[in-house]
Structures are given as C-alpha cells and as structure tokens.
Amino acid sequence: MSAEDDRPRDHDGCGDDHVITAGCPLDCLAPQLSAMAFGPLRHELPWLLKRPVTVGDVVQMYLRRQLKHVRHLGPRRIGEIELVLTLAGLIAPPYDPPGTAHASRLS
Ligand SMILES: [Zn+2]
C-alpha cells in the first residue's frame, strides 16, 4: 500500500520555509500570525464559508474589507494579517513606503 500519491494536488505540505500561496490551507498562516489574530480566523471562517478555508479566502476577505466582520478581529489584528499577506506577496502594500508620501508626482 503506497501513500505516495495521496498528497493534495496543490499543496505538498508545510515546511518551515515553504512559500505561502493562495492555495494553502488556512493552517499555513498559523506560524506567521499571533494566536490573537489566527484564532478568530480559524474559528470563524469555516463557519462563515461553510467549507475548508484557504489562504486565498483570507486574501479575498481582506480585499473586500470583510475581515472586520470576523468576530474578535480588531483593526490591530487585521493590520497584522495584512502585513503577513503583504510579506507573502499575496496582496500589494496598501500605502507608499515611508519617504515617498510627500513626493508630488501630480504637478
Ligand atoms: Zn502551505
């Protein structure tokens, strides 16, 4: 009996250094987030979505500004999630890097 081909098609496990993609299960974010930020996602999203949650679902909810509707997630936790998604390259940085805010490119 061989288990070689039993791995999920789009995900071959979560090593310490593996790249987080939108196809990863939510659990892949666990090492990246504090328990205060990850806990509400893990408890509320499967219930809200009625199916297993992926990292892509979190990205979509972030982009639609729906994370604030998740119970126990405040602006600070959402900011933490935003940072992790940004560092993973899943969303674009929401603001210009420091130092560019006053550059007047409109004139
Ligand atoms: Zn993963």
Features:
mainly alpha; globular; 107 residues; binds zinc ion; disordered N terminus
User: How many β-strand stretches?
Assistant: 0
Q: What does the largest sheet look like?
A: none
Structural class: mainly alpha
Helix and strand sequence:
HHH
Mean residue pLDDT: 83
CA radius of gyration is: 17 Å
Query: Which kinds of small molecule does this entry bind, naming each only once?
Result: zinc ion
Count of distinct structural domains: 1
- Helix share bin: 25-40%
Uncertain regions: pLDDT < 50 for 5+ in a row?
2-9
Strand content: under 5%
Give the helix tally: 3
Shape: globular
For the termini, the CA-CA separation is 69 Å
Explained architecture:
The chain is mainly alpha-helical. It has one domain. It is built from 3 helices and no strands. The longest helix has 15 residues. The chain is globular, with a radius of gyration of 17 Å. The N terminus is likely disordered. Bound molecules: zinc ion (ZN). Zinc ion binds next to loops.
Show the helix and strand layout.
Layout: H1 35-49, H2 55-63, H3 75-87
This protein binds zinc ion (ZN).
Brief sketch in words of this structure:
The chain is mostly helical. It has 3 helices and no strands.
